[in-house]
Specification:
Helix content: under 10%
Shape: flat
Strand content: 25-35%
Radius of gyration: 49 Å
Number of helices: 9
Strand order of the largest sheet: 53-55-56-52-49-50-51-57-54
Number of strands: 72
Length: 912
């Protein structure tokens, strides 16, 4: 509803704040006639009233009121209720002191009607008067776009920036809420837009005040003083913003304002400054695209870039910086942003099973999408690839990457979108015709994405109607399957009804019945001309059900309750427009019933089986409980079954096949077979499902049978690849491709045998050739960039392999130098002349590797006694000894390459 002068609630109710306004003396006048917007006259009342446009204040003796130039005297009453008892006199007018809503209202005796009224009063310098509410209504409707004004009701949802009209006030919503029976949320979640001020020179205005300027209404964006500077008004750019935040661009728009959002070609732009008479091609420097990569949300849960890559900008930068150097030259990734292009369409909620066509607008999770490719809704995660986001609805300036389109013209990237299910498709016809017992047409017709039973006939009003749903030369079980696509059918005795919605079942009494008797409303072809029938809608409450029709016709049974007195045999026009309650296509749904093949059954039970998708396969699912006296065989009409299961003729079925895809609540294993039955008789079942326990006993009563059965054939689904259409898919596909390339690089690294450690040997001159350094070597050979650190180049050490001697005396990884020990001795002895040979202690001492050995007493020549020593040698006095000779060294480990990817080195070298 748009606010206008015809639908304002409580036109004399408003509020003002005493702290905002200053007192001054004003004069004015107008005629007291009913054509004046200031005046309200209520028929039969002892007073009428007028709004003078200013809140009356100040002392009564300072006021002057004139009627046709004659002074009248204002009487000030304490409350509005005092008007009921005051004695009305000529030459008096009446004011209310304590009612803010009536501070600008003057009450007159009826004798003053159509006279001239003048006044001088003390009032507020700037105010809002109730009669001006009508002016607001008119002016709001002159904006470039009609702004929606909502009434305030209980249990309604209100959203940010809604304008609410309640008891004569305008409120702006700043926080979403659902209303209750009080005005609590109006006070807590809304800001009061009224009263407003006019834009006047030398006045100060504060942020969020409502300003009227040039017959339009604006919100003040920041505090300012409106004044003249050198005779020219100061620039208002960025100070005022109109009530409508978002406008749709059209040529000839008079003005756009700073911070407004402009939509053109379904792209959102932010206005950077006020622009008068804008021309689109010349204002590009004064607007900017609202959705950017750095404020567009990116879901990192699948690509796993890490480091808070929660925007498209960060994701692309992370993708490029982390992956670019690891790719082989010539395969680098360069990304240059995205373009969003949308077109308008029909506004619809997203519902499973609904058909959407190109340029439809879909509402899903408070967002609006434009359909780029026609589809029937089945799974939003797949269907979103056929749409592009128009509006996020969140108001926070950001979008999700999955909603931002990607131009795939050059990249030609593809992503697995799902699987082609069902493999064998059957479309529901646009129209399905039936006939009733009187051969009056009755149809199920498609309108948009729904199907409606349409029927119109003349009938006396009765509480219970039965309308046959019959098709000539059609198998009864096929008819049952057809109807179950749209409604759950029940047995004729079952008291389960659908409640009729408004307009679905309409009873109308024929009011020109006598005229029609003399002039029957029959067309030349014998059909009824309903345009000649005049009717009155009857107050009737109806409900309906559809019987299953197995072994009989299908009936639409209507039960009606008259809410007004209707004479017996009243001739009525009965009109049906009944919407489907389910929507299930025959290519995935099998509607079946119990059958007494080779046995007897006294009751018929009804079943529903479904072909469902399980990733890349098809599964037949369903469940039923065996009822007493129901047949043990299951019969149905659904030729789609032949595409998935072998269905030999029932006469050639000799044995059933064991399966674990059908289970019993008893735990007993089962076996089954599908078979064709009689394919020609209209009352016979075309297909049968035979089922029993593997021990050849029949299904027990009360046993629940559950199907999770993989078909015999055609159960694998073909994958469907789709072009990458949004930024979310872009990141995931590129990440997948990078992982694949990373695996290839790993294989290349192993094939080229780039080791963790590398040994370079000096040339014959003892010099290291720079061309044989590993970074140069692998760059020239394989085009791979590597960096290396030279190890132990300041220690001048050798390297040795592991072994028992390698750990002896090793500390902090380094084993010191050592040599084998050499031992010996020089003993004292006889020189053959009777002299003792040896080391005499006082004559000499050993040094270096020699040492004094054993001591003994000897007698030298001449009988002189002395001490004599053996002479020994020990090389450990010169260096560390061990059981080997070695030099100072470092430990190394040498590996020998055996295989790569399961191939031996000799096979690789031979090219096998």
């Amino acid at each position: 509803m748009n606010l206008n002068e015809n639908n304002i609630q409580a036109p004399f109710q408003y509020k003002i704040s005493d702290k905002t306004f200053e007192l001054k003396t004003v004069s004015g006048g107008f005629s007291l006639n009913t054509d004046n917007v200031h005046v309200k006259v209520f028929s039969g009342e002892r007073l009428f009233c007028a709004d003078i446009g200013y809140a009356v204040d100040g002392a009564v003796e300072e006021m002057e009121f004139l009627i046709n130039g004659i002074k009248v005297y204002p009487q000030v009453l304490e409350s509005l209720e005092d008007l009921q008892t005051v004695q009305v006199k000529d030459n008096e007018v009446y004011l209310i002191r304590n009612e803010l809503d009536f501070k600008s209202i003057v009450f007159f005796p009826p004798s003053d009607l159509n006279k001239k009224f003048d006044f001088t009063i003390t009032t507020y310098s700037s105010t809002f008067s109730s009669f001006m509410f009508d002016e607001i209504a008119k002016r709001l409707n002159t904006l470039d776009i009609n702004y929606p004004i909502k009434n305030y009701y209980e249990n309604e949802d209100y959203q940010i920036n809604d304008i609410i009209k309640y008891n004569g006030y305008l409120y702006r919503v700043f926080k979403d809420f659902t209303s209750d029976s009080t005005d609590y949320y109006l006070k807590s979640n809304c800001s009061l837009l009224t009263p407003f001020k006019k834009l006047e020179l030398d006045n100060s205005y504060k942020a969020n005040e409502l300003i009227e300027y040039n017959n339009n209404f604006f919100i003040v964006q920041k505090d300012f003083l409106y004044q003249k500077s050198l005779g020219v008004l100061t620039n208002l750019n960025g100070l005022l913003k109109p009530l409508q935040d978002i406008i749709i661009w059209f040529d000839g728009i008079t003005k756009i304002y700073k911070n407004q959002i402009v939509i053109k070609d379904n792209i959102l732009y932010k206005v950077l400054e006020d622009i008068d008479n804008p021309i689109w091609d010349s204002i590009q420097q004064k607007i900017e695209t609202l959705i950017k990569a750095d404020n567009t949300f990116y879901d990192d849960s699948n690509s796993s870039f890490g480091n808070n890559t929660n925007t498209v900008q960060k994701a692309i930068e992370k993708l490029k910086s982390n992956k670019q150097d690891s790719l082989i030259a010539g395969n680098n990734i360069n990304l240059y942003g995205n373009a969003i292009s949308v077109e308008g369409g029909v506004n619809k909620e997203y519902e499973l099973g609904s058909l959407y066509i190109i340029n439809d607008l879909i509402i899903k999770d408070d967002k609006i999408y434009k359909v780029n490719e026609s589809f029937t809704a089945s799974n939003w995660n797949m269907d979103i690839s056929k749409c592009v986001l128009i509006s996020t609805g969140g108001g926070n300036g950001s979008s999700e990457a999955i909603d931002v389109s990607f131009d795939n013209t050059n990249a030609k990237l593809q992503q697995l979108a799902g699987y082609d299910f069902p493999k064998f498709k059957t479309e529901i016809p646009e129209t399905i015709d039936f006939v009733n017992a009187e051969n009056i047409a009755i149809s199920i017709k498609k309108t948009n994405n729904d199907y409606f039973i349409e029927y119109k006939a003349l009938s006396p009003f009765i509480a219970n109607n039965q309308i046959i749903l019959h098709q000539e030369n059609t198998n009864l079980y096929k008819l049952h399957s057809t109807i179950n696509q749209f409604f759950e059918t029940v047995s004729e005795s079952e008291e389960t009804y659908y409640e009729a919605l408004d307009g679905e079942i309409l009873w109308e009494e024929i009011t020109n019945i006598e005229e029609l008797q003399n002039n029957p409303p029959i067309n030349e072809d014998g059909s009824i001309n309903y345009d000649l029938i005049e009717t009155r809608t009857l107050q009737v409450k109806s409900k309906f059900k559809i019987t299953n029709g197995i072994n009989s016709y299908n009936f639409l049974i209507i039960k009606s309750e008259a809410l007004e007195e209707i004479a017996p045999n009243t001739i009525c026009l009965l009109t049906l427009n009944i919407k489907n309650r389910v929507l299930r296509n025959e290519d995935t749904n099998i509607f079946a019933c119990s059958n007494g093949f080779m046995t007897t059954q006294k009751i018929i039970d009804f079943y529903h089986f479904t072909l469902v998708q399980n990733n890349d396969t098809v599964i037949l699912k369903g469940e039923y409980t065996q009822k007493e006296e129901a047949g043990l065989t299951i019969g149905f009409y659904s030729p789609i079954i032949e595409n998935y299961f072998y269905t030999p003729d029932i006469s050639s079925v000799h044995e059933l096949k064991n399966t674990n895809g059908i289970t019993s609540s008893s735990g007993k294993p089962l076996k089954f077979a599908f078979a064709k039955a009689n394919q020609t008789e209209l009352g016979a079942l075309p297909y049968l499902l035979l089922l029993m326990y593997q021990d050849d006993t029949d299904i027990q009563v009360g046993d629940t049978i559950t199907f999770n059965l993989t078909p015999d054939k055609n159960f694998t689904l073909n994958p469907i690849y789709q072009d990458v259409r949004n930024v979310q898919q872009l990141g995931e596909v590129l990440n997948d491709k990078d992982l694949e390339l990373g695996k290839k690089i790993d294989v290349l690294s192993s094939l080229y045998m780039i080791p963790a450690y590398y040994t370079q040997y000096a040339n014959a001159s003892g010099v290291f050739d720079a061309n044989e350094a590993p970074s140069v070597w692998y760059k020239k050979m394989y085009g791979i960039t590597t960096t290396w650190q030279i190890m132990f180049n300041s220690e001048s050490v050798y390297f040795r392999t592991e072994g028992s001697l390698a750990s002896s005396g090793r500390s902090t990884g380094l084993q010191g130098d050592a040599g084998r020990n050499a031992t010996g001795n020089v003993n004292y002895g006889d020189d053959g002349q009777g002299n003792i040979v040896g080391l005499i202690s006082y004559l000499s001492y050993p040094t270096g590797v020699f040492y004094k050995g054993g001591r003994r007493s000897v007698i030298l020549a001449g009988g002189v006694p002395r001490e004599a020593y053996d002479i020994g040698i020990n090389l450990s006095y010169a260096y560390t000894t061990a059981n080997e000779f070695r030099v100072r060294n470092r430990l190394i480990r040498v590996y020998k390459l055996l295989t790569i990817n399961g191939k031996t080195v000799s096979q690789i070298m031979a090219g096998v």
